[in-house]
Amino acid sequence: MPSVATPHSPADDPGDPRHPADAAALAPGLAALDRVVTDCRACPRLVRWREETARTKRRAYQDWEYWARPIPGFGPPDAPLVLVGLAPAAHGANRTGRIFTGDPSGDLLYAALYDLGLANRPTSVRHGDGLELHGVRITDPVRCAPPDNKPSTAERDTCRPWITRELQLLRPTVRTVVALGGFAWQALLPVLADAGWQVPRPRPAFGHAARVDLPARDGGPALRLYGCYHVSPRNTNTGRLTTDMLRGLLREAAHSAGLTTL
Predict the structure, then answer these.
(1) Is the pLDDT of residue 13 over 70?
(2) Which residues partner with 224 through β-bridges?
(3) Which 3-state string (H, E, C) describes the chain?
(4) How do residues 62-90 score in pLDDT, each as one tens digit?
């Protein structure tokens, strides 16, 4: 794991090629994009928070060396189904180095994907633990852990080039996207427009099981967008989102993407 030192980086400066707007555009493929995003330091508040969290740690993780860097997407580069969350958890992905890994939200999500045959194991412990996804890629519109899980609008917009480029690179294969929560839904609409799909006006409203089909501006395959309540403990502990609801929506989304499920 990398250190959590906080020296000034040229990537702090919008004119530097490692800044999101330029670095993302220069990435020729998803592997390159996933590498370069981990060097991003464009949002000072998020850099301070992710690194301070790594220094202080949670008592249960005192023996961990936290990742404390931006989190890349996870899953195959030819995935037809993409799941989009909010941002890394301070003691989840910010600790483990992989999206939705090491926190209750990820525990629920990966177990559901495993039940559907879309993951090779039901648990997610750390980067490099052998977890593989089948036909599914998972990503976030904000790549650094924010205080109180609430990125600012400016931070969301600064981070946008990463997910925009990711979806541009996935365009040959992606057919369905699931927005996990209202933040992801709202963040995705301009991203999908920038990546080449037509977003209707007025913009469609978020809701669990909301569905909208977006034609491609170049005449290519359309994209289907689903809304799903976020897999956070706040939703699952109150029954707003049940395991059956999550599995049912993921199964429908997978089938719309051409994937076979259990």
Answers:
(1) no
(2) 176, 213
(3) CCCCCCCCCHHHCCCCCCCHHHHHHHCCCHHHHHHHHCCCCCCHHHHHHHHHHHHHCCHHHCCCCCCCCCCCCECCCCCCEEEECCCCCCCCHHHHCCCCCCCHHHHHHHHHHHHCCCECCCCCCCCCCCCCECCEEEECCCCCCCHHHCCCHHHHHHHHHHHHHHHHHHCCCCCEEEEECHHHHHHHHHHHHHHCECCCCCCCCCCCCCEEEECECCCCCCEEEEEECCCCHHHHHCCCCCHHHHHHHHHHHHHHCCCCCC
(4) 999 999 999 999 999 999 999 999 999 99
d(CA 69, CA 162): 14
pTM of the shown model: 0.93
Asked if the peptide bond before residue 17 counts as cis, ω within 30 degrees of 0, the response is no
Q: Which of 218, 219, 223, 149 is nearest to 188 (CA)?
A: 223
At 19, the pLDDT band (50, 70, 90 cuts) reads: confident
Place of tokens 């650094």: 144
Q: Which amino acid is at 257?
A: A
Query: What pLDDT is recorded for position 7?
Result: 43
Report whether 156 contacts 142 (CB < 8 A): yes
pLDDT tens readout for residues 196-237: 999 999 999 999 999 999 999 999 999 999 999 999 999 999
